[in-house]
Specification:
Radius of gyration: 19 Å
Structural class: mainly beta
Strand order of the largest sheet: 1-4-5-8-7-6
Number of strands: 8
Order of helices and strands: HEEEEEEEE
Number of helices: 1
Length: 137
């Protein structure tokens, strides 16, 4: 039986709790692994009346760099030089399209320079809180 003090209340959902935890970890314990990333979808077409590109979108946010174990490089799906990054979906405002969305990932603070290329694949956790980006230049 549900207690009366829970009815009509604002109990956080599992997704909200997981998002709070992800935010706390990405901005706390793992803040040193966060770097600026810009995600861009090229224009989808051209408007002959306004003479402008249509459908293009871009967003700058921060992504947490993820380590890749040497054993994960298989030469086909994961190649030497590939990078992985984690973003919170609550901060994401554009659709990420595999092999279409381009990125500029500024790893200069980690002496890595600016890494530019395409988002090869994405993997979203079951609650839809975070997305792992597979990046290739």
């Amino acid at each position: 039986m549900v207690s009366a003090h829970f009815t009509g209340g604002n109990m956080p959902t599992l997704k909200e709790e997981f998002d709070d935890l992800a935010n706390e970890l990405m901005n706390g314990d793992f803040v040193e692994a966060k770097y600026p990333i810009t995600l861009t979808n090229a224009s989808a077409g051209f408007d002959p009346i306004t003479q402008t590109a249509t459908g293009g979108e871009s967003q700058s946010l921060e992504a947490t760099a993820l380590e890749i174990e040497q054993s994960q490089f298989d030469g086909a799906n994961i190649k030497i030089g590939d990078k992985f990054a984690l973003i919170r979906n609550a901060e994401l405002t554009i659709n990420i399209l595999n092999n279409i969305t381009s990125f500029s990932y500024d790893l200069t603070a980690a002496s890595g320079g600016v890494y530019v290329g395409k988002v090869i694949n994405t993997k979203t956790d079951p609650l839809g809180v975070t997305t792992e980006l597979h990046l290739r230049s």
